[in-house]
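Checked the freezer inventory, then went back to the computational side. Two predictions to log before the end of the day. The first one is the construct we discussed on Monday; recording sequence and tokens without edits.
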Amino acid sequence: MRKILIAGASGFIGRALIKRLLDEPEVHIIALSRSERTSDHDRVSWIKCDLFSLKDISSAMKGCHEAYYLVHSMLPSASLSQGTFYDFDLIMADNFIRAGHHHDLEHIIYLGGMIPKVGELSWHLRSRLEVEETFRFSGIKTTVLRAGLIVGPHGSSFTIVQKLIERLPIMICPAWTKTRSQPVALTDVIKVLYRSYREKDIQGRIYDIAGPDVVTYQDLIIRAAKKIRKSTTLITLNIIPLSISRLWVSVITGVPRDLVYPLVLSLKHEMLPSPENAWPHPEDLITSLDQSLEDALNVSVDSNYKMFRPPRKDVRSIQRLVLPPGRNAEWVALEYFKWLPFFFSTLVTVKVVGNFCTFYLIDPSVEILVLKKSIDRSSPDRQLLYVVGGLLSGKMDRGRLEFREVLNRQYVMAALHEFRPALPWFIYRWSQAIVHLIVMKAFGEHLKWHFISGQKAKK
């Protein structure tokens, strides 16, 4: 029995892919989800897995031969999420690679985004590219599939279009709605994902996945409106900036702005495939836009589908910091604890004794935070410290601070995961949480000074 892991299995693409892979009698699917799920098939094992946890993903990946990565993190993963979705995406991809190396994973199939040939990409597309590069340069064979808008029921981008049509008889359209794209049907994407697993000779390359129809977003809206028999009038007003249009899209559709904003900012780019990245089996990509719209709009809502809800009163805070030349994550962690007392002057002191790092408030007897280094799970390129006590720390099982190298040692991530404060939530959000961001920003500037000094020393 061949084990295949699917990260993002509970999404609309993951669920359709599971159905297709079950046609293979010798395949057992390890389906990852952020929430508890029960399986209705003896060859599908649902595992609750936090991709921000290397321990979780490593445990789930044990015994797997290949893996699909269908994850994009734009919605909050905690009650308080400090940081950007692209840094969150990068840490999850890095965890996936580290687990893959540990278990000798043979092949990764990554479904990313179409990358237009322009000077400045939106952060949404840059994030897709960073994740892609994390996989491609990992040493694990990776097949990259780049797609624009995927037309399928419950897909985030398509749901936004559908809700706009249903709720607005007249739309004032900004300039980006005249941008051309090449949407692809969900059914065709599943064919491509399946073939990428089955046929070894096409693996390890980059492919652009697109349907047969080139349309503008206005064309897409008009065609979809006809399918649901809605009368929609479009009025183009080119002076509407992206910042305003993304706001009204979120307000009208009710889709969270954390999801809408990055997507809308990417719509200024044409999402058209490159000939050099053409899929070698064009017969897989023949479903017309009209047919894909009809298929997507005629699917009833899945009553068993549950949206992930972050745990109450927990914190995730991730900051991307430059890594000075010749340094590693272990050095950054030690430098952080050496630098903190200077930043706080006499207010806070820090003592590192053995594997413990203790923060004191003025009087050395008042412990406000205690961290314990995990010796067996730390390495020169990743330092892991668990939060084990202190007046500012609430009860938690896996609260932790880590420093890790990413993107071929260009950056180091400082990440606080699953932290639960002792302070009342409202007070914490407007005091300790803000102080943490200020401290990390200042430490980032400190590392930049080391970076510049290191660059000068090389010359």
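The second is the one RB wanted added to the comparison set:
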Amino acid sequence: MLELIKAGGLLMWPIILCSVISTAIIAERFWSLRINKIVPKNLVSKVWQWQKVGHLDQKRIQDLRKSSPLGMVLAAGLVNRHHSREVMKESIEEVGRHVAHELDRFLNTLGTIASITPLLGLLGTVIGMIKVFTVITAQGVGDPSVLSEGISEALITTAAGLSVAIPSLMFHRYFSGRVDELTITMEQEALKMVEVMHGQRESEISTEQETK
């Protein structure tokens, strides 16, 4: 492995650095974007139960805000639960944009890595071919062994760049889709809570409570 890195030249080091960063981001996003962490089950049912028995106070709202991203969105609406549906929705949308931005954290970096690593590999290819033609100009093509260094650098950097870019792009698309799915789910749960707080959909929430 060390021989391959040396044969690839200096551009192998930024490619390796991109690989390490990409791996760390992928692992962190898998951990952070777990659905039970972002959108806990039956959270709206729990809020409705607190409201029903008169236990929905500021302390519970504060704890709800700290519990999960969905809890943060719901808490924004609960703070204004005595106002109209429009006011609740506006406060939820404002916090929801912030939460969605947090869910996208590091994905731009992952997308950037997916874009630049093939270019780094291409640059390594160009540098390697320049070395090959420099040797050909100076010594001719009589001894193929003198061309091997430049050819190796060209091929290795290209392969390394693509090896980092392909999985980075795949996971960037995957996590972007998961963020969209989680955002839509939070919007649906928040809308359900607004309707419950204004006397709608209680029967649906009651059914959820009975099936828990």
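For RB: The chain has ten helices and no strands. The mean pLDDT is 85. Let me know if you want it refolded.
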